[in-house]
Amino acid sequence: MSSQPLGAGGNSRVFRVELDDASPSRRVIVKFYRRDPGDARDRLGTEFGGLRFLWQNGVRSIPRPLAVVGDRQCAIYECLDGEVAASEPARPADIDAAIDFLSVLKQLRCAPGSDALAPASEACFSLGDVVASIEGRLHRLRGADGGDAETMRTWIDGTLGPLADRVNHWCRGAANAAGIDFDQPIGAGARTLSPSDFGFHNAIRRPDGTLAFIDFEYFGWDDPAKTIVDFLLHPGMRLDDTMKRRFAAGVCAAFPELAALPARTRMAYPLFALKWAVILLNDFLPERAGQATSAHRAAQLAKAQALVRRAAREYLDNPFLP
Fold first, then answer.
1. What residue ranges define each of the domains in the chain, with the CATH number in brackets?
2. What's the pTM value of the predicted model, to 2 decimals?
3. Which pLDDT value is given to residue 11?
């Protein structure tokens, strides 16, 4: 038996293990999940339970969950042959495969066992929830120490914070005009199952060209508007404008019963752009002091600044959403 570490994810350690029988069916993925003090999320239970639910309901564009070793915070999965799909630009067929996958998840909303599934990690069921999340993260970031942290705080106070206020004001006005309650959570019938961290950075292009989706540590119930905009905004994605429009239009069309979804998605887009920007600054948080180099923190700040500039350009007249 031999093993090979895969990836450089910060949340888990992943190995491809070759068992004594070298046939493809004897090659597996072994994943060890991190548990941090103060973080109550059960990444192992969420991912294994979510994949088991999907597999039991006939979904095959995922790795098959095989076994759990609970006392080791470890799970074993089918090993999928292929390459990470994000290693090359997305194709129209890839976008359609992503839309089809989300459509399948929607169809499983009432499947046996779906009522036992939890909300996705950081699920936001109202637009006001997103604003509160951003404000909470900004409050924590303002408590950061160090010389480079002062640069970050100055930028937050001079650029990110004022833009967040303008976006919040615009979103509330747009919601009022569209008859959407900004602070009211959407009902159960308007929610969908989501991988949460969904995109081609978490997809495998198999030898036959089809896609399989991996990494369900944050799986659960969420707002489909959040699923759409996270896909468009994720820093690990490589999508041109045509592919972004194709995805947004396709997912909205898959939820024809949600008449407000296009409008909610337009409002959610700049809010989640700002949230992604503050997530990129996590290494400045006081509890992470000393865990990242100044060069890395500077690079993360530059990414956040670029995303905020993008949000400022796009929030009034979004070029991607129907």
1. 1-79 (3.30.200.20), 127-314 (3.90.1200)
2. 0.91
3. 65
